[in-house]
Amino acid sequence: MIAFVRGQVAAVTLNSAVLEVGGVGLELMCTPGTLATLRPGHAATLPTSMVVREDSLTLFGFADEDEKQIFELVQTASGVGPKVAQAITAVLAPDDLRRAIASDDVKTLTRVPGIGQKGAQRIILELKDRIGAPTGGRTIGAPAGAAPWRDQVHQGLVGLGWPARDAEKAVESVSDLAGPSPDVPSLLRAALQSLSRA
């Protein structure tokens, strides 16, 4: 089991990062929120979870240990594999998920791609006694002050190698999608799409 990876960021793509560790490039599958914190050429330490399948070994990287634990815990619910677990960590911060499960909030869980009404009810039922109470950690897309999502999306684009001026234009192009509680990973994806069209 590989508990964490520390090394220089060699590359950042839309859904993964490559960290150079001892002359070897390890590809880590990451959420857009995690990728937004990485800068090519800079050192990074990411908690990791390895998923072993018959035909592949996949390493998932996380922003923090709490996100990693949530990723591993939600996979113990029936019908939740690594792809859905990663989608959950991309859309919901650990405490958002804990609150949703504690309050039987099916609607919040169905915001995650790949989770329908029945799947959300099953996750709530199976994890309610094991997920614990919110810890007061970070939240995704929490509105505060002057649109912090703009900074996060801008930093994510610059981290992916786009010039600052292009990143600013892309942030402007998605500002009408933000709404009252912006979903940063979705906005980052939309901004990347607008840049690829330009």
From TrEMBL:
| Protein family per UniProt | Belongs to the RuvA family.
Swiss-Prot/TrEMBL keywords: ATP-binding, Cytoplasm, DNA damage, DNA recombination, DNA repair, DNA-binding, Helicase, Hydrolase, Nucleotide-binding
Please give the SMART domains that the UniProt record associates with this protein.
HhH1 (SM00278)
- As given in the record, the signal peptide range reads none
Q: Record's GO cellular component, any one?
A: Holliday junction resolvase complex
Q: What GO terms describe the biological role, i.e. biological process, of this protein?
A: DNA recombination; DNA repair
Q: Outline the extent of the Helix-hairpin-helix DNA-binding motif class domain.
A: 72-91, 107-126
Q: Which organism is it from?
A: Nocardioides ginsengisegetis
The segments labelled Domain III in the record are 145-198
Name used for this protein in its record: Holliday junction branch migration complex subunit RuvA
Q: Which InterPro entries match?
A: DNA_helicase_Holl-junc_RuvA_I (IPR013849), Hlx-hairpin-Hlx_DNA-bd_motif (IPR003583), NA-bd_OB-fold (IPR012340), RuvA (IPR000085), RuvA_2-like (IPR010994), RuvA_C (IPR011114), RuvA_C_sf (IPR036267)
Q: How does it assemble?
A: Homotetramer. Forms an RuvA(8)-RuvB(12)-Holliday junction (HJ) complex. HJ DNA is sandwiched between 2 RuvA tetramers; dsDNA enters through RuvA and exits via RuvB. An RuvB hexamer assembles on each DNA strand where it exits the tetramer. Each RuvB hexamer is contacted by two RuvA subunits (via domain III) on 2 adjacent RuvB subunits; this complex drives branch migration. In the full resolvosome a probable DNA-RuvA(4)-RuvB(12)-RuvC(2) complex forms which resolves the HJ.
Q: Where in the cell is it found?
A: Cytoplasm
In its UniProt record, a GO molecular function of this protein is: ATP binding
Listed HAMAP family: DNA_HJ_migration_RuvA
Functional summary from the UniProt entry? The RuvA-RuvB-RuvC complex processes Holliday junction (HJ) DNA during genetic recombination and DNA repair, while the RuvA-RuvB complex plays an important role in the rescue of blocked DNA replication forks via replication fork reversal (RFR). RuvA specifically binds to HJ cruciform DNA, conferring on it an open structure. The RuvB hexamer acts as an ATP-dependent pump, pulling dsDNA into and through the RuvAB complex. HJ branch migration allows RuvC to scan DNA until it finds its consensus sequence, where it cleaves and resolves the cruciform DNA.
